[in-house]
Amino acid sequence: MKKTTLIAGAISALAAALAFIAKSKQKPAASEAVRAARYRQPRRVLIAGATSAIAQEAAKEFAADGDKLFLIARNAEKLQVVADDLRVRGAAQVETAVLDLTDTDRHAATLDQAAEALDGLDIALIAHGTLSDQAACQQSYALTEQEMRTNFLSVVSLVTLLANRFEAERRGTIAVISSVAGDRGRKSNYVYGAAKAGVTAFLSGVRGRLADAGVTVITIKPGMVDTPMTAHLEKGALFASAESVGQGVYRAIITGREVVYLPRFWWVIMTVIRHVPEFIFKKLNF
Predict the structure, then answer these.
(1) Of the CATH numbers 2.40.110.10, 3.40.30.10, 3.20.20.110, 3.40.50.720, which one belongs to the domain with range 27-262?
(2) Nearest partner of 95 among 71, 119, 66, 113, judged by Cα
(3) Count of H helices and E strands in the chain?
(4) d(Cα 80, Cα 283) in Å, to the nearest integer?
(5) Which residues does 259 contact at the CB level (< 8 Å), separation at least 6?
(6) How confident is the model at residue 236, as a pLDDT?
(7) In 3-state terms, the chain is what percent helix, strand and coil (to 5)?
(8) With the C-alpha atoms ordered 253, 190, 227, 84, is the resulting torsion angle positive or negative?
(9) What's the pLDDT at 106?
C-alpha cells in the first residue's frame, strides 16, 4: 500500500512541477511564426461544438485572422452569442447551424450546408463532448452507450464524412479534440477514457490513410482544463485555462502538428503513466 501511495505521490509531484515550468514559459498564440503561416485568402473553418469553452478560444484566434467561420452547436441562444462575438473580433463571415451532434443522420447535410455557405472548407475543428459520470455509467449500459455516442461515434461520423470530402479535394485539415484520458484507462473515468482512446486510434488510422492525399489530421490531447464542463471538480496546479488551451489548438492547426498534448507537459506525465506496470497501476487511486 505504501509503495502505491509513494508512486502516486511521485507522479503528482512531477506533474505539479511540470505544470509550474510550463506555465512560466507559455507563449502567446499570436507569435510571429504562427501569424506568418496565415493563408493569403481567409481560411474557411468549420467548428463543431462551437459553444465549448476551448472551441470559443480557438475561434477567437481565427476571427482575429479575418477567417470565415461556420459554427455548429445544439444551443441556439449560446451559439448566437458566440457568433456575434466573433463578428466583432474580425471574422470575415460567420454562419451557424443548430444541431445536436449525436444526430448523425444530419451530419452530411450540415457539412454540405457549411461548404455551400463558405464556398468550400479548408479546416474542420471537432470540439464537442461531455465529461462522463463514471459512477452513473457503471450502473447503466444505456448511459454508457449514450456517452460513447457523444464522445466517440458522433466524432467518427463527422471525421468519416470530412475525410472523404477532403480526400477528393486533395487538401484540408481535420483537427479533433481527444484527451489525455484516452492514453490509459483509469478507474475514475474509464468510460470517458475509452471513448477518447477510440477517437485517438481512429484518427491515427485516418491520418495514415490520408497521408498521401494532402490532408492533415490532428489529434489534440488536452489535460485538465478549467471550463464549465469541469466546474464541479476541485482545481489544482494541473488545470490549464480554456484560453491557453484554445490558443494551443489554434497553433496546432496552423502549424500542422499531428499529435499535440496541451499543455505540453502532459506528454511527459502520460509517458510515465503509460509505463507504470499494470499490477501497480490498478491499485492507484486517481
Answers:
(1) 3.40.50.720
(2) 71
(3) 12, 9
(4) 47
(5) 218, 219, 221
(6) 55
(7) 55, 15, 30
(8) positive
(9) 98
Query: Which is nearest to 37 in space by CA: 65, 1, 4, 71?
Result: 65
Among 96-100, 171-175, 269-273, the least confident range: 269-273
Q: Is the pLDDT assigned to residue 32 strictly greater than 90? A: no
Cis geometry, peptide bond prior to residue 228 (ω within 30 degrees of 0): no
Helix 141-148 vs helix 190-209: crossing angle, to nearest 10? 30
Q: What is the pLDDT of residue 286?
A: 72
Q: Which helix (H) or strand (E) holds 247?
A: helix 242-255
**Joined grid coordinates for residue 260:** 499535440
Helix (H) or strand (E) holding 241: strand 240-241
pLDDT of residue 113: 98
Structure-block grid coordinates of residue 240: 490549464
CA nearest to 147, candidates 134, 166, 157: 134
Terminal-residue alpha carbon distance, the chain: 14
Give CA–CA dist 283/215, Å, rounded.
42
CA distance 44 to 150: 25
Candidates 114, 108, 118; CA nearest to 163 is 108
Question: 222-274, pLDDT tens digit by residue?
Answer: 987 866 666 566 665 677 889 999 999 999 999 999 999 999 998 999 999 99
Q: For the chain, what are the domain ranges? A: 27-262
Kindly tell me if the per-residue pLDDT of 201 is higher than 60. yes
pLDDT, tens only, 109-118: 999 999 999 9
Contact yes or no for 250/29 (Cβ under 8 A): yes
Q: Which residue has the cell 481512429?
A: 202
Confirm if 192 and 131 have CB atoms less than 8 A apart.
yes
